[in-house]
Amino acid sequence: MPLHQGHQKPDDRPLSVNPFYGETNPVSGMVEAPPKHRLPDGPLPPTTALQLVHDELMLDGNSRLNLATFVTTWMEPQAGVLMAECRDKNMIDKDEYPRTAELERRCVSMLADLWNAPDPSAAVGCSTTGSSEACMLAGMALKRRWTQRNADRYPGARPNLIMGVNVQVCWEKFCNFWEVEARQIPMEGDRFHLDPEAAAELCDENTIGVVGILGSTFDGSYEPIEELCAALDRLQERTGLDIPVHVDGASGAMIAPFIDEDLVWDFRLPRVSSINTSGHKYGLVYPGVGWALWRTAAELPEELVFRVNYLGGDMPTFALNFSRPGAQVVAQYYTFLRLGREGYRTVQQTTRDVARALAERIDCMGDFRLITRGDELPVFAFTTAPEVTAYDVFDVSRRMRESGWLLPAYTFPENREDLSVLRVVCRNGFSSDLADLFIEDLTRLLPELRRQPGPMTHDKDAATSFHH
Ligand SMILES: *Cc1c(COP(=O)(O)O)cnc(C)c1O
């Protein structure tokens, strides 16, 4: 999100108003068109204001054709009805909206059970605005636990957090905002995420925790959480250091429990102390909801918890912000109730089937080489085959935009900066039919791309869209 600046120049041309936009009279008595960068002096009729804003928004992209985002772009109309009913409810007013608070509590309890907390009733958790806030909270709990254990050395000693270089940017933000050293494990050859032994080697007495990602945003691969915990167990045997693991399951914590039931990544591993997910990614809710859970109350220092009024008593809360809409939490509960385990399994399996089939077809085209195949997160990355020299991934991204597809191209981080890829994020609502149309568009484009004299995209940053 850009940090917007005010308008630099004196107001340029004001908004232009179609005479038809008035209620009965053309533009209903408006004597002056409204300015764009300064608060207008007077009001506009609602129909005129609506039409002006609506017209401008027509130029936003079509979210369903956005293969860059992990965030939900389609929900059932019934979810929309509930969300509209709840848009005035403030999540923090637990006392005024006790039923909304109760639905949030039920969601936490369902997630504790889904993620195999040894005693779901002992697990604690909360809703957030998304995984970024959830990761900040989980990181704060890790840091505070470390400072409590090291009260004799802190302030003074500098805490660190271990992670792969492929972490989502929220972990870089956490380390920056909370003054924790980010120790990143670089990529190596065809390993595009964290290596358990390398993670254990980076740990020392100032390590507050290790972040494992269930579902790397770079290529959709799962990090080996079980192996990571085993490497940290061995480290503890050798050195006595007992390092907790936080699982960033922004995407995968809502995929693996349904379609990778044998994968052990969650609270079944005693070393996993907290987990987050984005309700608005594969939790299947519109943007604005995430979840953070701790194995037991002992993992979340009591001094970080604030209390708000609740039916004559008080309710503990843990959040960065204060006011927040209740609609997304209600929509999460609706979706849990609506789909159940079986429903989620079917939806996620269908999405994975679409991803795998699409990856397969791209592989068969011959021009591309798959980096991942969509068999972990329903997400895959691919690059151009070595013999392709007429065009590169940035050209493909730019040209696919002509057909409306947002297909991000980006370069991998340090150690593999030689590798640039395209990535497809399949989501519920990206059906096999849409995947067919995607393949048709890509197939039609290839002959033209092959005739290029060489890669044509010079401004590679401008060529593509945000990929996290
Ligand atoms: C998307 C994502 C985040 C950030 O989540 P938001 O819900 O967008 O705040 C963090 N970590 C991972 C692995 C992600 O995929």
Would you summarize the structure shown here?
This protein is α/β, with parallel strands linked by helices. It has 12 helices and 13 strands.
How would you characterize this protein structure?
- This protein folds into two domains: about 80-335, Type I PLP-dependent aspartate aminotransferase-like (Major domain) (Aspartate Aminotransferase, domain 2); about 350-455, Aspartate Aminotransferase, domain 1 (Alpha-Beta Complex).
- Helix content is about 35%, strand content about 15%.
- It has helices at about 45-55, 75-85, 100-115, 130-150, 170-175, 195-200, 225-240, 255-260, 325-365, 395-400, 430-450, 460-465, and strands at about 125-130, 160-165, 180-185, 205-215, 245-250, 270-280, 290-295, 305-310, 315, 370, 380-385, 410, 420-425.
- The protein has a seven-stranded mixed beta sheet with strand order 1-7-6-5-4-2-3, sandwiched between helices.
- The model has no long low-confidence stretch (mean pLDDT about 95).
- Bound molecules: pyridoxal-5'-phosphate.
- Pyridoxal-5'-phosphate binds near residues 130, 213, 217, 248 and 250.
Feature tags:
468 residues, alpha/beta, Aspartate Aminotransferase, domain 2, Aspartate Aminotransferase, domain 1, 2 domains, seven-stranded mixed β-sheet, four-stranded antiparallel β-sheet, 13 strands, globular, binds pyridoxal-5'-phosphate
The CATH superfamily of the largest domain is known as Type I PLP-dependent aspartate aminotransferase-like (Major domain)
Largest pleated sheet: 7 strands, mixed
Ligand inventory reads: pyridoxal-5'-phosphate
Percentage of helical residues? 25-40%
Mean pLDDT reading: 93
Strand order of the largest sheet: 1-7-6-5-4-2-3
The structure class reads alpha/beta
Given as residue ranges, the uncertain stretches (5+ residues, pLDDT < 50) are: none
* Morphology call: globular
Number of domains: 2
- N-end to C-end Cα span: 12 Å
Supply the number of helical segments: 12
- Classified by CATH, the class of the largest domain is Alpha Beta
Q: Write down the CATH topology of the largest domain.
A: Aspartate Aminotransferase, domain 2
CATH architecture of the largest domain: 3-Layer(aba) Sandwich
Order of helices and strands: HHHEHEHEHEHEHEEEEHEEHEEHH
Portion of residues in beta strands equals 5-15%
Q: Which radius of gyration do the C-alpha atoms yield?
A: 25 Å
- Tell me how many strands there are: 13
